[in-house]
Every structure is written in C-alpha cells, then in structure tokens.
Amino acid sequence: MAHRACHFDLHRLWCSKNFAILLKDSKTSCQVIYSQFALAIHQNDHQARRRFVEWAQNEIAVVPDFHKRILFSDEAHFWLNGYVNKQNCRIWSEANPQVYVETPLHPEKLTAWCALWAGGIIGPYFFKNDEGHDVTVNGDRYRAMITNFFIPELNNRDVQELWFQQDGATCHTARATIDLLKDTFRDRLISRFGPVNWPPRSCDLTPLDYFLWGSVKSLVYADKPQTLDHLEDNIRRVIADIRPQMLEKVIENWTSRLDYIRASHGNHMPEIIFKM
Q1: Among the four residues 141, 142, 156, 178, which has the most C-beta atoms within 10 Å?
Q2: Residue 171: is it exposed, middle or buried by C-beta count within 10 angstroms (0-12/13-18/19+)?
C-alpha cells in the first residue's frame, strides 16, 4: 500500500498577502507530481521526530531565543522550464517503494544551496564545474562549498554561537564532512551522524522546504527566463529581496511546528498530505 506525500507547493500558493494563512495549519491539497525519488516511511520516524522535538523544546526552555540561533540549510533544483523537483513532492511507501522517474523536456537546471536563520540568508550558492555548468552535489563538492563559501560568509557576519542543521543526504553526512562541520560548530551540529540527530523525512521542520524554495520558485519564473544566467539572476534577486521580518515570522512558526509534532506524537504537519 503506497502513500503519495507532497508538502504544499508554494510555487502554486505563494503570495505575501496570504503568508499568515500558510503559516497556520494549512490543509490545502497539492497536485502530486512524481519525482525521481521514492522514500520509505520507517517505523522509527515518529520516535526520532518526538525525540528531536523534545530536545529542541528543552533548549528553548533554557534559552528562549534558541530557535533563532539555528542555521537551517538545504539544496534545491531550479529547472529552466520550471520543472518541480523532489523539494516539492515526496512519494513514500511503507515497503519496497518504487522509484518514479519524470524527465523534464529541457534538462537544463541550476542546483542552489542556502542557509537560513532568523538573522538572514547565506547564499544562494550554485554548484558548478570550472566551465560554469551545473553539477551533481557530492561529498567533495559539498565540502568545497562549506570551505570556500559558507564558512567565509559566516565569518563575515557578526554572529556567534549559531547552530547548523542539515538533512541526511549522503553528501552531507560523510565522515569527512561531519568532521569539517565540527571544526566550526563543534557540538552545535544538527545532522545525521552529528552530535544532535536530525530526524529523517522531516521536511516540515525545515524552513527552506516549507517556506524558502516554494516562495522563490513562485517568483523566478514570472518573466519566463530563457537562459540559466537569467534564471540565476532571478534567484539571487528574489532571495535578496526577502525581508528580515519575514524570516522572523518563518522561524517563529518553527516553534509552532514543534508544538504540533509533539501533540501529534511525531506526525507530519497537515501540509504533508497522504493519499491512499
């Protein structure tokens, strides 16, 4: 029995005037678009999510602005023809999930990375080779981004004692990558194989998934960019235009999500819609 899961597509729903609605328990259904990934819902997911929520809420009880000190990070693909990738749709199956493949008509894309916290956004960073072409993110390229872009950008900002969060993608969690991140963040690392475990399949707890990528994708295709350079310029402009007050609301909403997940014993937020 398969469940198709899709977190709400802000590419279709986003506009500034209804952001307050989207921050609440949105029950808006979304069109399911099969991606090239399939994820299994594991028995221990709810337990891992409950443990993380309990830890985070305990930290907030001691340091009330703790949630404002977390740098959340993620990558997203931006296809030149506006194709929506795995960041907008997940397919989860209880056993032996099949892999659904959908190939865009024009396979030109950019892969962007950002880190977001209450104080701003670091990025976007675009993964490219020496010729300027989009490349797949692997461990070496991810570590190069951390070393050559992220850490220098972080050091240029007047911030201290920030935590860093990343999901469990293989390129994020190699031993060399975890060691590199520990050099900067020490025990302030939230990651699979890190000092604090990030619960798998928890896109509803990642502000880039439930806010940033959807809002950016809702705007960057408005003028129908015909080249990757044009699309990249649009992405940079849209991200630069995000107001600090918006980021503060997004991060405050994160604490409401913790409350929901704790009360629901680890369930996903309502925008994660499961269909039989």
Answers
A1: 142
A2: middle
Rounded to 5 degrees, φ, ψ at 51 are -60, -45
**DSSP string for 170-224:** HHHHSHHHHHHHHHHHTT-EESTTSSBPPPSS-GGG-HIIIIIHHHHHHHHTTT-
Q: Residue 107: exposed, middle, or buried by beta-carbon count in 10 A (0-12, 13-18, 19+)? A: exposed
Give 218's pLDDT tier (boundaries 50, 70, 90): very high
Per-residue pLDDT at 102: 46
Tens-digit pLDDT profile for residues 124-162: 999 999 999 999 999 999 999 999 999 999 999 877 889
Q: Determine the distance from the C-alpha atom of residue 129 to the mean position of all C-alpha atoms in its chain, rounded to a whole number.
A: 23
* Tokens standing for residue 182: 């520990």
Amino acid found at 233: D
Determine contact, residues 225/80, Cβ cutoff 8 Å. yes
Sheet arrangement for strand 70-79: 120-126, 109-117, 70-79, 163-165, 189-190
Task: Give the residues across from 121 on adjacent strands.
Answer: 116
How many Å separate Cα 92 from the centre of its chain?
Answer: 18
Sign of CA dihedral 224, 116, 210, 84: positive
How far is residue 49 CA from its own chain's centroid? 16
* Residue carrying structure tokens 């190069």: 144
Residue 37, pLDDT > 60, answer: no
Q: How far apart are CA 260 and CA 254, in angstroms?
A: 10
Which tokens hold the place of 148? 């050559």
* Amino acid at site 156: N
Q: Closest by alpha carbon to 80, among 221, 215, 235?
A: 221
